[in-house]
Amino acid sequence: MTSYPTRGALAVGLLAALIALALFLPGLGRAPFDDPGEGQHAEIAHEAWRSGDFVTLRLNGVRYFDKPPLLYLAQAAAFSVAGVSERAARLAPVAGAALAASGVAVLGTRLLGPGAGLLAAVALLSSPLLAAFARYVRPETLFLAAIQWGMTGLLLGWREGKRPWILVGCVALGLAALAKDPLGLLGPPAAVAVALGLAGRLRPVAAWLPPLGVALVAVVGLGWYAMAALRNEGFLWYVLVDNHARNAALARLYPDEDVPITALEFAATTLLGAFPWIVPATLAALAVVRRRAWRDPGEAPWVALTLWAVGCVALFLVLPFRLPHHGLPAYPALALLAARWWRERRVAGARAAAWLHAALLLPVALVCVVGARSDGRLFTDVVLGVSDVTTRKATTLASGVTLHPLWTFFAGLLGSTAMTFAVGAACLVWLGLRRRPGAMVVALVMILTVPTVGLALGALSASRTVAPMAQVIASRVRADERLVHEGPLEASGALELYSGRRPALLDGTRSVLAYGATFPEARETFWTRERFRREWLGGGTVWLLTPRAPDRSVMAEIPAERRELVFEANGRRLYVNRP
Fold it and tell me: Are 426 and 475 in contact (CB under 8 A)?
C-alpha cells in the first residue's frame, strides 16, 4: 500500500488529539470522584505529590503496589499547575485518550491515507467503553496510548526502515510498563514478531528491534520496578506472582475486592464497548485470514494488528480472572481494521456497507426505546452490573446500594440515544440507495453519543461519591477524635482528599493495601475487631464510617445504647460512640 508523508500523518495525529480534547474536556470536573474507583487513584497521586516520593506509592499512608507510577506522575503534574481538583486529576486519562487517538491516526494515515487515519481515530474515541475511561481516573487510556505508539513505532520503523520510529516505539512500550503492567511491553513486540515471521521477514531482528531499542525498553519500563524492589522487600514477588500469576488463576494470597465477570459477560462488554466498529473490524480481520495475508510482507502491519486484537480478547476469555476493561487494549487495532474495511468500500460495496450499519443502528434504537419505557431494573441491575466494575465490588453489594433510583435520568439518556441512532439509520438507508458510503454518518452518530457517556458517568459518580460524608466528617470530627473506616479503603478512596482526615482501617486487609498492611509501620493503621470494641466502649470519642449494611457491619455487635447514627449518604453510614 502507498505510504503517505510523515508530516501529513503527524498533522492528522494532531487533529485527532484535538478532537479528543474537544470531546472529553467539557464538564470534566463537574462530577465528584467516584468511589470505589477514581477516589483511591486521586488520593495516591495526592500523597505522592505532597511527599515527592513516586517510587514507594502510598494510600492512607500505607504502601501501595498494585499500579506503577505513570498515572500518579501525570496527576501530580496537573495538581502542580491547576491545583488539586477533580478536573486536574482527570486530565491524565484525557491525555491518554488523546495520545492513543493520535497514535492510531498516524499509523492509519501512513497505511491508508489521511481520511481513513482520521476515521480510525474517531472510531476509537467514539467507542463507548473507551469514551467512559477517557474521563475516569484510571491508567487504562495511558496504557492504550503507550501500547499504540509502541505498535506505531515498530510497524512504521520496520516498514520504512527508519530507526527513529523504532526508538519511539520502544520508549512507548517502556511507558506501557509504567502505566499499568510490565506485560504491556512484551505483547506488541510479540505480535509484530509473529507477523514478520509468517511473512519471512523476522530476520535480521535488529532491523525492527535494535539493541538500543531493547535497552530503552529495559531502562524506561523496568527502572522503576528495580528501584521499588530495592526499597520494598517482597515487591517483585507481590507484583509478578501474587498480583499477576496467582490473580489470573483466582488464587491470590492477598486478594482485593474485585469481582471477576464471566467469559460471556466479558465478551459482551468488549463487543458492545466497541460498537458498531467491532463489526467492520471483524470483517476486515476475517478478510486478512481469508486471503492469507501473512504471506505478503506488505500486509505484515495488518497481520500484526489482527493478531494483537484477537490475542487480547482471547487471552481474557481463557483466563479465569477478567474485568470489563481488560479488552480495551484491543480497541486501537480494532479501530484501524474498521477504517480499512470502510476504505475498501468507498466504491465497491458502498451500498451494502451503508445498509449493514443501518441494520446495526436501528435495532439498538429500538432496544433503547423499549428500555426507556421499562421499569429500568434490567438496565440498572444487569447491564450496569456487568459493564460497571464498581457494582461488582463486594463492599458495594454488601451496603445494599441499588442504581434503580437513577433510572429516570438514565431513561432520558436512552431516549436521546434512540433518537440519534434512528436518525443515523435513516441517513444510512438513504446513502445506500444513492450507492454512497456511510462511514462519516456512523462516525457522527457515535460522536454524538459521547456526551451521553459522560453524563451517565457523572450520575453514577454523584450517587456513589464519599464527598457528602467527607464534608460532614471535616466539620464534625475534631482533631483529637478517632475516625475509623470499616472495610477496604477503596470503597471510600477520596475520603482523606475531601475531608483532610486519615482514618484507621477496620477489616481493611481484603484490599489493594493487603500487602502494604504487612509492613511494620502499618500496624497502627489496621485495627482488629477486638481493638475497635475496646476503643469504642472506652472513654474517647470514636467515629465509624462504614459502607456495609447494618446487619453486616461491626455495629451489629455494639449495643444500641452505645452508638448513634449521625449521617447516611450514598450507601455509607457515619456512627459515633455514646458514653
Answer: no
154-181 burial code (b ≥16 CB/10 A, e <16): bbbbbbeeeeebbbbbbbbbbbbbbbbb
* H or E, element range at 121: helix 114-125
> Pick from 441, 444, 443, 436: which is nearest to 346 by CA?
436
Report the C-alpha gap between 477 and 500 in whole angstroms: 11
Query: Which helix (H) or strand (E) covers residue 81, if one does?
Result: helix 70-82
pTM of structure = 0.95
Cα 537 to chain centroid distance, Å, stands at 43
Q: Which residue has the cell 528491534?
A: 209
How far, in Å, CA of 510 to CA of 499, rounded?
24
Residue pLDDT, tens place only, 217-260: 999 999 999 999 999 999 999 999 999 999 999 999 999 888 88
The per-residue DSSP string of 308-364 comes to HHHHHHHHHHHSS---GGGGGGGHHHHHHHHHHHHHTTSSTTHHHHHHHHHHHHHHH
Q: What is the pLDDT of residues 284-330, one digit of tens each?
A: 999 999 999 999 999 999 999 999 999 999 999 999 999 999 999 99
pLDDT tens per residue across span 472-529: 999 999 999 999 999 999 999 999 999 999 999 999 999 999 999 999 999 999 999 9
